[in-house]
Design brief:
128 residues, alpha/beta, Rossmann fold, 39% helix
Length: 128
């Protein structure tokens, strides 16, 4: 029996966190939700995360800043970014920083699941 992947969802909007949590749990994933990057970093759950789904714009530390910090610390955890402001410049920054996907809100559940499948694949590749 395989162990379900642990997905960490970071978004300052509680409704977005709940919606993504419900979607992923319905697909068999273990989900941990966080209201901020700081909450995620201070959690013991951050070390066993298989993938991070993070909002780009959060108070204090942005999702891209979190990714940059984690990469500097040697983490290769895949990142999927979601944002209500899908600016091309931000998209390029996110993908250049190593994000697997960059989705504008609202997004289709199927798009998020495709990104997650790609992120959890052994040979994951970035895409927009």
């Amino acid at each position: 029996m395989s162990v379900a992947s642990v997905i960490s969802v970071l978004d300052d909007d509680p409704y977005v966190r709940a919606a993504i949590n419900n979607l992923l749990e319905s697909r068999g994933y273990n989900v941990h939700t966080f209201a901020s990057a700081e909450e995620f970093l201070s959690s013991t759950d951050s070390s066993d995360t298989s993938c991070v789904i993070a909002d780009v714009q959060m108070p204090l530390m942005s999702g891209i800043d979190l990714l940059t910090q984690m990469r500097a610390q040697g983490s290769a955890t895949p990142f999927i970014f979601i944002t209500a402001f899908p600016d091309d410049g931000v998209r390029v920054r996110a993908l250049n920083a190593g994000a697997i996907c960059f989705l504008g809100k609202p997004f289709a559940a199927s798009d998020l699941m495709q990104c997650l499948d790609r992120a959890l694949a052994p040979d994951h590749q970035t895409t927009s």
